[in-house]
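Hi R.,

Quick one: here's the ABC transporter permease sequence you asked about.
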Amino acid sequence: MNRLRPRLVPILTTLATLVVLLVGWQLTVSMSHVSSYLTKTPLDVFDYLLVDGRFTPAAAADRRAALVPMIGVTLLHASVGLAFGVSLGLVGSIAMSVSRGLRGTFLPIALVLQTVPLIAIAPVIYAVFGAGIVTAAVIAGVVTFFPLLMNVTTGMAAASAETVDLVHAYGGGRVTLLWRVQLPSALPYLFAGLKIAAPATISAATLYEFLFSFEGLGANLLTSKSYSDYGLLWTLVVVTIALALAAYGAVALAERLALAGRFPPPSTVVRRGGAT
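And here's the predicted structure, written out as tokens:
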């Protein structure tokens, strides 16, 4: 029970926060004077997904079936963008750790990509690559690149001097130091960056679809507003948020599985003097 408690507390806290947000959303809409035609509540979204008759098409199963290809397209765009951004971030981090000259090259590019608003740079990316998955990958990769680059670079620099000296003492070269010491030490930082990047790629993919595509959640956000299908509009917003939260949860789970036993939590580390 004592082992389960630290794992259950964050889950229960997250669920409690989610319930509070949903109740607050429901009460805010119900007690205000906003239009019930334009503004939907969590119960309306529940009805859209599970109750027949209130929305078009009449069968909830048909409405759910229509959402599946939209979700699939957005997940494809986000996944390709995440893979592209992670790959670029890892290559940039390794390059920056190997050479100060390359650090001076990569860092300004990363800062420029981070400081320019995505809504401003997206049309430029579209003008260069046109419509398609390449543009979606580049837009999603832009938001992924910077947190991965900075976090992994910091993690690689966090390798202890004693460990670095030990590798050198046994004749290990630059590749050995990178593979045996720096990359393993960067794993917690990699997952910290992924926790930021993975949900952000969902938003970036949705933005690409909203601006330049006729497929996916983002494109249907636009068309549902154009056709005044506000039940679908609010449901798409909820689905997009749920996908972003699921992306964060998937990274957190992967982190727990990958780092289990490799980096014990601080509470289990035996401190000097015998305290635990």
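The radius of gyration is 23 Å.

Cheers,
M.
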